[in-house]
Each structure stands twice: as C-alpha cells, then as structure tokens.
Amino acid sequence: MPGFRSDHINLIATNLRDRYKTGFPILKELIQNADDAKARSLAFGYHSGFGAQSQHPLLQGPALWVLNDGEFSETDKRAIQSFGLNNKAGESGSIGKFGLGMKSVFHLCEAFFYVAFDGHAKHGMLLNPWFDPQEEDLFQNRWEQVAAEDFDRLHTIVGEQHQGQPANSYLMLWIPLRMRQHVPPRNGNSYGAIIEKFPGDDASQELSFLHEPSLPGRIASILPLLKSLESVEFAGNQNADGFKLKLALDADSRRVDHKSRAMKATGIVQETRSRGEQLRFYVRQVAQPASAPFQQLQRLDTWPKTMRQNASGAREQVSDTSEAEGAVMIAHADGDVAHLQLRWAVFLPTEEGTQTYEASFGSGKRRYQIVLHGQFFVDAGRRGR
Predict the structure, then answer these.
(1) Which pLDDT tens digit goes with each residue over 313-324?
(2) Residue 10 scores a pLDDT above 90
(3) Which of 144, 179, 229, 234 could join 200 in a cystine, given CB atoms 3.0 to 4.6 angstroms apart?
C-alpha cells in the first residue's frame, strides 16, 4: 500500500508565508547558521553571474552568495538536504544549524547551490526542491545536471574572497536570484514560482535591504549576542558600496556562551574600512544550567519535543532544550536623533514590530538599544513568543 508523498514546494511556500519574512531576516538566519557552525567570519555579496561561461541556467544570471568559515561535516551535509529536520535540536545554546531558517533563502530563488570544504575534501551540491524523477518532462529536472567545472567556479569565488589564503573549512551558498525564465509556462498555463517575486529581473523587489543605510547598524547589533562570529563583510553590489564590521572585546571580557553562571562582555563593533565605531555595547549574562525546576519540567510528557537527525543520520525524538538563562545587552551608537529601542531576543533578536518598543527623546543624537535575551519558546521564524 503506497504511503504519503510530500509536496516540498507547498511546504516551503507555507513556511515562507507563515514563519519567515523576506529581506534582512534571511541574512539574520544565515548569520545564526554561521555562528552555530563556529564560524569566525561571514561574507556576502552580489554576483552578476557567469553568463555564457557556464552551461547551467541557474549560474548564468545574478546571484547572492553567502560564505562562512565554520565547520562542515557529513552530518551537516545531510541536514542541509533535509526539510523540517535538523541536527542541533535538543542542544542547549543552539537554535538549529541548517533547519527551517536556512530554507528562508527560497524567498529569493527556486533552487540553490552550496560548496563546502571539510578540511579534507571539497563538496558541492544543487538543492532543487522541484526535482521529481516521476515527471520526466518537468522543466526544473534539467537543473540536476551540474558540471564539475561549475562547482569549481563557485569554489573560485571562495578563493577570491579569502585572497588565496586556504581556510580550514568553509561553506558558501550560491543563491540564484529568481527570474521569470526559471518558471516558464507549462502546457500554455502559468506554472508558478515558490514565491511570485523575481529579484533576478528586478532586484528592488527583494534586495533593497542591501543598500539601506541602516544595514551596518542592524548587523552590528547582532554580533555581541553571538558565541563565535567576529566579523561580517558585505562585498557590495552594483548599487551599494561594501563594508566590514568587526567585533573587538575589551580586556577581561568573554563572548556570550549561554552556560556561564555569571559573565559580562564589553567592547565595540567597528566598521573597519572607515575606521568608524558602529556600536559600543555592554552584555551581562546570568545562567543556571541544569537547575532543578527546569529538569523537573523537562521530564513532563507535555514538554515540547522535536525530531532530529543523529550522527548516523537516523531520526530520533528529543526534548526541546531551554535553560534558566538570561542576558541583557545595552548598546549605543551615534545617529540622527536621540532614540531608545527595546527588543526581545532568543539567541537572535525576534521580529521587529510587535516585539519592539521605541521612543524618541531629548535633543541629542545618540541611539540607545536594550536587548533582553532568554531561552523562552519561540516559533521557528522568531516572529512571536
């Protein structure tokens, strides 16, 4: 008796609509993925495509690429190919390395590539949710044939970004910006895209956040809340100059780890190309891991549970992990008008809007930000508590 079949396209479209917004939240998810992979640096940029040099239609047109120098393993490879499963569920201090958040890139594309290096061997793959071996005439099935030379081209982008210096490991996503030619009519009728936006034809539809003046500041406010990531670089595009942000801790400061009973971190996030200070911050963390009330609650049958892949690739159900831990970040930067912003965070700040409180005051120009972090339950897209 045949079992159920899953329609990945509808699942992806539903998650994008209900959980993940487009624009900056996509980048925020990829920053968190990099930090979960213990990356120290992340870079992203716009590429006009390889044109006639490549035979693959998704490599000929414009793309957004995102590169980090984090760890990459066979388990990670399986997790990227999974939908709704991840290999980090049940681990304290992590919200999922390649879970649903990474799939937010489908706001921009119909399929995406990745290339990686695990310290020993290179990897490359196309993630094509349309692929269906039972439909031989499906247009998107043609994308499955990727020449080795095309993966080499993507690895070359990594080498250029690293300026010829070999990295111990890395992962780069190549996100072909959706074009109308990627979803041609079928049998005379509109075939439809995952999302009816075509940033490859009109970048202003989905990529306007890349040249917003607030982009460096938004990224700067995330860096102090991460465990590993120290720098984020935007390599630029045809409409915007690039920038590079680097976090520098003061003496006797440590990064947030979500485990230490008491710790503090002070320092700055600096825009290295202009040598300007983007943000000065103070973070205070208090944690009581494995405290008695939480252990008792976690043993209840009603405690939330998640399905994950273990190291061997098998599925197993684990209890969602939340600890008695909280932190506060107080930060300030120069701006146009005096301003105070209060936000909630679960590892990363939750969605702006309903979870953000703002007020303007005084005649100065300093902008203050207070971020309150705790390991409370939040939906997968961090759009509500």
Answers:
(1) 667 777 776 778
(2) no
(3) 179
Q: Which residue has the higher pLDDT, 295 or 88?
A: 295
pLDDT tens digit sequence for 92-101: 444 444 456 6
> What residue numbers bound the domain in which 133 lies?
8-291+319-374
DSSP state of 281: E
Query: 142 and 149 in contact (C-beta within 8 Å)?
Result: no
Eight-class DSSP state of 161? H
Tokens encoding 260 = 């230490």
Cβ contact 85:307 at 8 Å: yes
Task: Confirm whether 144 is domain-assigned.
Answer: yes
Q: Tell me, what's the pLDDT at 57?
A: 94
**Phi, psi dihedrals of residue 238, rounded to the nearest 5°:** -70, -15
Which amino acid is it at 302?
T
Evaluate whether residue 188 is within a structural domain: yes
Rg, C-alpha atoms of the chain: 21
Whether 263 and 254 have beta carbons less than 8 Å apart is answered as yes
> Does residue 305 sit within a domain?
no
Of 108, 107, 145, 105, give the one whose Cα is nearest residue 126: 145
Largest CA distance in the chain: 72
Q: What does the angle CA 173 – CA 25 – CA 91 come to, to the nearest 5 degrees? A: 75
**Nearest 5°: CA angle at 268, between 263 and 45?**
115
Q: Which helix (H) or strand (E) holds 17?
A: helix 8-18
Inside any domain, residue 231 = yes
Nearest CA-CA partner of 44 in 27, 60, 58, 32: 27
Q: Which amino acid would we find at residue 186?
A: R
Q: Give the predicted TM-score (pTM) of the model.
A: 0.85
Q: Residue 182 has what pLDDT?
A: 92
100 three-state secondary structure: helix
**Identity of the residue numbered 214:** S
The count of domains in the chain is: 1
Q: For residues 265 and 177, what is the distance between their CA atoms, to the nearest angstrom?
A: 39
Judge whether residue 2 has pLDDT over 80.
no
3-state secondary structure of 53: helix
269: enclosing H helix or E strand: strand 262-271
Phi-psi region of 207 (alpha: psi -120 to 50; beta: other; left: phi over 0): alpha
- CA pair distance 33, 17, nearest whole angstrom: 21
